[in-house]
Write a structure and sequence with these properties.
about 70% helix, Arc Repressor Mutant, subunit A, 2 domains, Rna Polymerase Sigma Factor, Chain: A, about 180 residues, mainly alpha
């Protein structure tokens, strides 16, 4: 049975710093892929996700346990990504590396055409995401790539749940438009 995040935070604040490593292990992949979707560069995504963990660790005493730790952590990363996108430090070119897309199905050898088509669809989705503004891209990533419920997205973005639903609706429309004609 997994230990709840808030218990791990309490134990970490009580002096057991190894509990923070459990939180890092739990969230390192989702944080990296969120950052990758936001900034589009694997090196920058790695750096930003690591910076978010450092900031979270240093600010752990200010964490409010009434909120989910995951939401708090993603809020930190969201702000870092937005700041990085505004700064000159992030490359202007939005490009997701082939490594990020390399999740070939197990039956690739038995059906390489299907595997190729699946890879093409993934690339088309990433390319379409790259055309969206950061606000639309962020909400799509949080909902569909991070599988966050509306309430958590609201906490991460600091907006009401109704605004999450509205923004998500319009972001989906933008994504659908960007994918029009690419995916049948």
């Amino acid at each position: 049975m997994e230990i709840e995040d808030n218990i791990l935070v309490e134990e970490c604040l009580g002096g057991n710093l190894r509990k923070f490593q459990v939180l890092v292990e739990r969230y390192k992949k989702p944080m990296y892929f969120y950052a990758l979707g936001m900034v589009g560069n694997s090196d920058d995504a790695y750096d930003l996700s690591q910076e978010a963990f450092i900031k979270a660790y240093r600010s752990l005493k200010r964490y409010d346990s009434r909120f989910q730790f995951k939401s708090w952590l993603f809020t930190i990363l969201s702000n870092l990504c937005k700041n990085a996108l505004r700064s000159a430090g992030i490359r202007k070119q939005y490009m997701v590396s082939d490594k990020a897309l390399e999740t070939a199905p197990a039956d690739m050898e038995s059906n390489p055409e299907s595997a190729y088509q699946a890879q093409q669809v993934k690339q088309a989705v990433w390319d379409a995401l790259a055309t969206l503004d950061s606000e639309a891209r962020e909400i799509i990533i949080l909902k569909h790539f991070q599988d966050m419920p509306y309430k958590e997205i609201a906490e991460v973005l600091g907006i009401p749940v109704g605004s999450v639903m509205s923004r998500l609706h319009y972001a989906r429309l933008k994504l659908k438009k960007a994918l029009a004609g690419v995916i049948e």
